[in-house]
Amino acid sequence: MSNEIISDNTTINALPDIKSMPLPELTEAVVSLGEPKFRAKQLYEWMHKKMAGSYDEMTNIPKSLKEKLSNAYSFTSLQVVDVQESKLDETKKFLFGLSDGNVIESVFMKYKFGCSVCISSQVGCRMGCRFCASTIDGVVRSLLPGEMLDQIYAISRITGQKISHVVVMGSGEPLDNYDNLLKFIRMLTGEEGMNMSQRNLTVSTCGLVPKIRELAGEHFSINLALSLHASNQEKRQKLMPIANKYELSEVIDACKFYFDETGRQLTFEYSLVAGVNDTAEDAAELVDLLKGLNAIVNLIPVNPIKERNFAAPTRENALAFKNKLEKSGINVTIRREMGRDIDGACGQLRRRHLNEK
Ligand code: SAH
């Protein structure tokens, strides 16, 4: 893991991003331009309720104000660079272009319970998990709140579907972009915007212990998913460099704290890698580790990336692993490998795009 400082500021191309401003901040900005307060509410509604892609759509905003705003602020509006549609299910993967030329990916998934979007929180990632494509070239920068929101808005506009669930499980480590993540959560779940239920939002982390504790202290009702991937410290260190910084026991304690503070059920993600973490002993150790926790284990047969030599277990072995956990009273799901035919796993579409360039 490198130590470069990731900028958390809210500017793109030197101008602050208007879509990243919570309503009070936007109100201040509008008033400082000599405009009445109610314009801020109108603008906020256009951006965050009606999901306008530009000022052109905002029919009740005067042209003079649009001009003033264009001179003072940038307006995040993600551009579709590529879309891949699964032939196996209704999963769609979007490659979006940002205003600085970077690309990020987001995924649309249709479930029985509604439509879900998986968003990226950074361009690239600096966490270095061995099996993950997002991290191969490190992190470029963190995403602004408006860039996280616009992945949802753009996908909702393009698919014509109401998005009921969001998972922050795309490229990047959301807790490494903490301040912008908090703004994003408040804006997504605030009633003046999309007003999504916090219970329908899940944040996935590789385990930044102090930040998990800080997030617990915010007392949101959002779900926490922890990328575990190994049931002992030694194996986890081999798969995830972050394990060198935070011991497995500290990570589990932080998750317990999150549950105690919020009452939200915990999910542990476990990418099954053949011959690495999928043995009967691994399953037994996992049972011991999670005993007494109100947890769900989400098994993900590893999605092989060409830069690494990892293979998924056979269906039979994955089921055997699942059965072992279930017999011990642990709730387990095997993640439907949605969109495997379309570079489904974290960072794979962006990676292919960068390689082609
Ligand atoms: N940084 C966050 C969120 C991004 S990754 C985190 O670590 O949780 C979302 C999940 O997909 C993580 O559990 C990650 O470890 C897993 N993942 C990434 N690449 C994968 C791959 N090739 N196969 C299976 N799971 C993968």
Overall mean pLDDT score?
A: 92
Work out the count of structural domains: 2
Radius of gyration: 21 Å
Q: How would you describe the shape?
A: globular
Q: What is the spatial order of strands in the main beta sheet? A: 3-4-5-6-9-10-11-12-13-14
- For CATH, the homologous superfamily of the largest domain is named as Aldolase class I
Main location: cytoplasm
Keywords: 4Fe-4S, Cytoplasm, Disulfide bond, Iron, Iron-sulfur, Metal-binding, Methyltransferase, rRNA processing, S-adenosyl-L-methionine, Transferase, tRNA processing
GO cellular component, one term: cytoplasm
Binding site for S-adenosyl-L-methionine: 172-173, 204, 227-229, 303
Characterization of the model:
The chain has 357 residues and is of the alpha/beta class. The chain folds into 2 domains: 18-72, DNA polymerase, domain 1 (Orthogonal Bundle), CATH 1.10.150.530; 79-356, TIM Barrel. It is 34% helix and 20% strand. The protein is built from 11 helices and 14 strands. It has helices spanning 23-32, 38-48, 63-72, 145-159, 178-189, 209-217, 233-239, 248-262, 280-290, 315-327, 348-356; strands spanning 11-12, 15-16, 79-85, 92-97, 103-111, 114-118, 122-124, 139-142, 163-168, 201-205, 223-227, 266-272, 295-301, 331-334. The strands form 3 sheets. A 10-stranded mixed β-sheet has the order 3-4-5-6-9-10-11-12-13-14. Strand 5 and strand 6 (114-118) form a beta hairpin. Helix 1 packs across helix 2 and helix 4 crosses helix 5. The chain is globular. One of its GO terms (biological process) is tRNA methylation. Its EC number is 2.1.1.192. Specifically methylates position 2 of adenine 2503 in 23S rRNA and position 2 of adenine 37 in tRNAs. It comes from Butyrivibrio fibrisolvens DSM 3071. Residues 111-341 form the Radical SAM core domain.
